[in-house]
Design brief:
With 465 residues, this protein is mainly α. It has 22 helices and no strands. 80% of the residues lie in helices and 0% in strands. The longest helix has 30 residues.
Length: 465
């Protein structure tokens, strides 16, 4: 490439990362706002922890299914249109959630009592199911975008930076929730849905206008052509000529070989299940776990959860991404083993600190849990994208998504049931058991290669013989 093309590519690469970061942060604005509103919803309407946990579980399962389905769609359609549409739809249903009590009044004919609560529970649950599906349109387009704009040997570092988006989004929405609760008390629950929805509608428009799917869409050579040019080799000498990937038969065969028949993808997906149990147990329940088990105020809990995401999560992802590329030779799965060990030790430390300790003391191990667990949360998707190659990155991450959000069976209704019937102390034991299993699972592929491009080339060569 010419110097001018290199500069232009760097500009668009940076722009793609930043715009998708902001866009996905806004997805969290219209997703984790429910968690900020949970204490107010419980206090206002008398909904139990088990019911709230059921909401989280149903939302998580639908989200996982959605990521699985939309993973296949995102590999075949315009990523920018898909991501923008999903965010707009999430904003619309959040506006509906903000008026769910009004809908329940219309259906039940009363503003209180059993019929009202039944109607409200059904309406809230239905809206959360819709939101869960639309949320699943956020991540799948990012995988093909990043693999088109970022070389495989830089993907762990740059995707770890990108993965800060959800921590930024979740951290900011918890701060916003703390401010709203401080000024409006329990009536803040409605604003927790309406304000983020308005911001997200604007963000959806920005995604559509500012993203481009591939380098060729802005007149630049694709990554393979750039690499061939850098090595002073014609593209056809670089590797075996690939079949036309728009051919449905080829794409299905590629998916069977590189995704569904790939043992590493399934181990990464299983590990994702355990990682998300630890993550969601702290993130989704933090606003209730911290006051319930450590005696901190709801406002202080909101700040601690924001720090958990914004400071601990972001630093953990960036450090883990850097370590993967610079210490572990882009083998993300090896970094994850050490991260899981750190998460286990941090959880034990947080559990054993007495509830008489100040919030500042409690915040240290609580933030360290995020520092260590968000490394695998970011890296497992990167590892899957590299193993499946850019031809099937979204599809592979769809499998990880459905495993990750199947975890809400444990971290959602399961966590709420354990807290209701056995107390908060037992929830820590549940978290630790699954964290240990997750560490052992990812350790089983310690010797796996960094990516699947060599295996993909062998697959292509067999097809062309």
């Amino acid at each position: 490439m010419t110097l001018e093309q290199i500069k232009k590519f760097k500009y668009w690469q940076t722009r793609t990362i930043i715009v998708t970061m902001v866009g996905y942060a806004l997805y969290y604005f219209v997703r984790k706002n429910f968690n900020t509103a949970m204490p107010s919803i419980e206090a206002t309407f008398g909904i139990t922890k088990t019911q709230l946990g059921l909401f989280l579980t149903l939302n998580g399962i639908i989200y996982g299914v959605s990521r699985f389905i939309n993973g296949f769609i995102a590999d075949r359609v315009s990523a920018r249109k898909f991501m923008a549409l999903g965010l707009a739809l999430c904003a619309v249903v959040n506006i509906g959630f903000g008026f769910s009590d009004k809908m329940a009044m219309l259906i039940s004919g009363t503003a209180s009592g059993g019929e009202f609560i039944t109607a409200l529970t059904i309406i809230m649950g239905s809206i959360l199911l819709l939101n869960g599906y639309f949320q699943g349109m956020g991540v799948p387009p990012v995988s093909p975008l990043m693999t088109h704009w970022v070389p495989a040997n830089e993907l762990a570092t740059k995707m770890s930076i990108w993965n800060m988006s959800h921590s930024i989004g979740a951290g900011l929405i918890f701060v916003l929730g703390a401010i709203l609760v401080h000024y409006f008390d329990n009536s803040a629950w409605r604003l927790c849905f309406l304000i983020p929805a308005v911001l997200s509608l604007a963000g959806a428009g920005a995604l559509y206008l500012m993203l481009r799917d591939t380098p060729s869409a802005v007149g630049l050579p694709e990554l393979e052509e750039q690499q061939s040019d850098a090595e002073h080799k014609p593209a056809e000498e670089k590797s075996v000529k690939k079949p036309v990937t728009s051919d449905p038969a080829y794409h299905k065969a590629f998916l069977r070989h590189m995704v569904f028949g790939n043992r590493i993808i399934w181990i990464l997906a299983a590990t994702n299940f355990f990682v998300y149990i630890v993550r969601f147990s702290m993130l989704d329940w933090g606003m209730m776990l911290l006051p319930g088990s450590k005696g901190v105020s709801v406002a202080a809990a909101a700040i601690m959860v924001a720090v958990f995401e914004f400071v601990g999560g972001n630093l953990g992802m960036v450090v883990a991404g850097w370590a993967t590329d610079h210490i572990f030779g882009s083998r993300a799965h090896r970094t994850c083993v050490f991260c899981m060990l750190g998460a286990i030790l941090s959880t034990v430390a947080f559990w054993y600190i007495p509830d008489t300790a100040s919030a500042w003391v409690l915040a240290i191990p609580f933030t360290l849990i995020a520092f260590f667990i968000y490394g695998p949360q970011a890296l497992l998707g990167i590892a899957a994208a590299n193993q499946a190659t850019k031809e099937a990155a979204a599809s592979a991450n769809g499998i990880l998504g459905i495993f990750g959000y199947a975890s809400t069976l444990i971290s959602g209704v399961g966590f709420g049931f354990v807290a209701d019937h056995y107390g908060w102390g037992m929830t820590y034991i549940v978290i630790l058991v699954f964290a240990v299993i997750g560490m052992l699972t990812i350790a089983s592929i310690w010797n796996a290669k960094a990516d699947g491009y060599e295996a993909a080339a062998e697959f292509d060569s067999r097809l062309t013989k």
